[in-house]
Amino acid sequence: MTGRRSFLAAMAAGLCVTVAPPSIAQTYPNRPIKIIVPFAPGGADVIARLVADRLSAVLGQPVVIENRPGGAGGTVGTKAVATADPDGYTLMLTSPGPITVAPAVYKNLDYDPVKRLAPIAMIATSPFVLVIHPDVPARSVREFVAYSKANAGKVNFVSPGFGTSSHLLGELLKLRTGAEILHVPYRGATPAIADLLAGQVHMFFDNIRNLQPFVQSGKLRALAVTSEVRHPEMPELPTMIESGIDEFLGYYWNGLLAPAGTPQPIIDRLNSIINDGLRSDMGATVLRLGMEPKFGTPQDFAKFMADETKRWTAVARAANL
Question: Residue 221: what are its φ and ψ, rounded to 5°?
């Protein structure tokens, strides 16, 4: 009898293993995935397409990119992701603005990036470059600051929106140097660059990928980069630190996030796919775009976001934004 009971128990255990439901990561995805880019077309779309192609190839499902601009620095699209179902079918490809900068500027956001969003993976980083229109008679950061003081109230700087990294970098320049520059917010980097090229505005901090072609063609003049060391794509440019402004650092970055509550197996699987891609052809493309591929865990990305938010909060408070 004991043997029979043991046999039946073993059979029952076997049946339990056989009929156990597959894990979430094994069944995901079984329908198309959407990546929301909370900005107008022309900015983070390039990296978003790289991510979409990589995920689609590995997961075997279509990955659709949806630009959803609006609000201050991408907050409308970010809120849409923060309030979406946490099932792994709505993701967000973003830059710093709505994640680490807007929380430093706005007291009453419609979302809390820490509580409502789950970091998946950092993808790429790049320093910002300070550019001016060639009609501005300055060849260095110091000369530009002096020119702005001599023309107080007449010199401005643009940004893709209030509460974006470009905005806070301009405010940081004012804090550190006393530059007399007025902020002109736009709805996205593309229209800001268009007016800068037309000479309607004077100065802009943006990532190297967006501005390098215009610098190389002579349509814009670059003065410095915001990294710790010179950028290999523009080795002739000094850093802001070399230009005499201590601890003036700022990095543009792209990362992938999901609504908070998205199952961890899905987060981990997406992270693994992104990291594998960055070690191969996807990473090579990121380098060609003038950015640096970034590897790491979701936890690494979360820490980076926390550190950046703390840093920009200090700047926003000092600038009384």
Answer: -110, 125
